[in-house]
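Quick one:
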Amino acid sequence: GASVFSKLSANDGAADIDVVFGYGASANSSTRFYHKTYTVQYKSINGTITGITDEDVISGANPTGSKQTPNTHYEFEYWTADVDVDIKDGNVTKTIKAGEKISMEQIEKVIVHKNIVFTAHNKTYLIEYKSDDHGKITGTVDENRNSNEHPGGSTQEADANYEFAYWICDKDVELTDGTKIAAGQPITDEQLTQVKINQNLVFTAIHK
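Output:
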């Protein structure tokens, strides 16, 4: 008669396996063992996955890994997993908790025993533009920039009987030429667009 196959789930103590056996016309065939597979997905926050977005990985094997590209004005920071994962490097096994930082090099050493979603996190810095009580901002009020960029700058308008004097920043900053300007000290329009970004910044227009 026709072959009939049943599929059972089993565990060999090291990795999940599926057992497939036959009877009837295939009763004398050898039992075949298949490692169970899990789905590994790759996602990005404020970026785009440019490599594989998902893959089926045999239980006990390692992910292939992927790549991602940050959105404009963002830069890559780290990956995370949605579940605890074990990484085996030689004879050493390390557990990285869900949500903890993990590198792509580490991802490629993860021992897969469950479905996993790896997410790329891309960071940005917020640059804000404000005015004192004697004027108003007429241009950009805030923008996102990464640490490889400089502020785009903004425009302001002084109230009647006042004129623009300079900008100040809420934090110490450094310009591309190495000049350091302390928080609260005068910054010109030109200097503002030369500031090295490595933190959130607030620039305030001062009028006199």
